[in-house]
Each structure stands twice: as C-alpha cells, then as structure tokens.
Amino acid sequence: MADVNDLARSLYARGKDPIDWAVSLVVAQIDARDSVVSARLEIPGAYPGYLLDLDDESVARRIIGALLDAGWTAPTPKGN
Q1: Is residue 74 one of the residues assigned to a domain?
Q2: How far apart are CA 46 and CA 79, in angstroms?
Q3: pLDDT, tens digit (0-9, with 9 covering 90-100), for 27-69
Q4: I need a surface site. Which of 1, 4, 18, 79 has the fewest CB within 10 A?
Q5: Contact of 80 with 50, CB cutoff 8 Å
C-alpha cells in the first residue's frame, strides 16, 4: 500500500479497514457523478467547480485507484 494517501493512512491507523475505506470512496464518486449529471441535465452550468471528468472511463479509473490504494490487487489472468 505504498500509494495510500495521508487521509487513508490515518484512517487505517485508527483501525478502519482499507477495503471499507475504498468502498466509501467509490460510493462518493458514484454519488457525486450522479448529482452533477442530474443537475447539469436541468441547468447546464450547475456545479461549475466540479471539474473532474464524468465519462464512464474516468470514473472507473478513479474507482480502481481507490481500490488499489486500499491494497486490492487485480487478479492474474488465467494461465499465468
């Protein structure tokens, strides 16, 4: 877990499970995206400060990053 950010590191030190932390980050990413997308459907200029990309691939990369920071490792392909 060398890439863990300072906030996550402090939570781990207090006994918070790394995967629980990652799950909370994933939920926050999905909730934020849903809120921004919904608001921008009604008012295109809504959430002007939310500058993160909203496309599926960008959100997926942030989710994978949260899981990797939590210590998750991708499964090895079969045959390796």
Answers
A1: no
A2: 48
A3: 888 999 999 999 999 999 999 988 888 888 988 888 888 888 7
A4: 79
A5: no
User: Which domain does 47 fall in, by range?
Assistant: 6-69
30 in a structural domain: yes
Asked whether 42 and 32 are in contact (CB, 8 A), the reply is no
Instruction: Output DSSP code: residue 80.
Output: -
- Spatial separation of the C-alpha atoms in residues 21 and 61, rounded to whole Å: 17
Contact 10, 62 (CB under 8 A): no
Q: Is residue 12 part of a domain?
A: yes
Q: Is 14 inside a domain boundary?
A: yes
Tokens of 34: 């849903």
Answer yes or no: are the C-beta atoms of 1 and 18 closer than 8 Å. Answer: yes
Domain count, the chain: 1
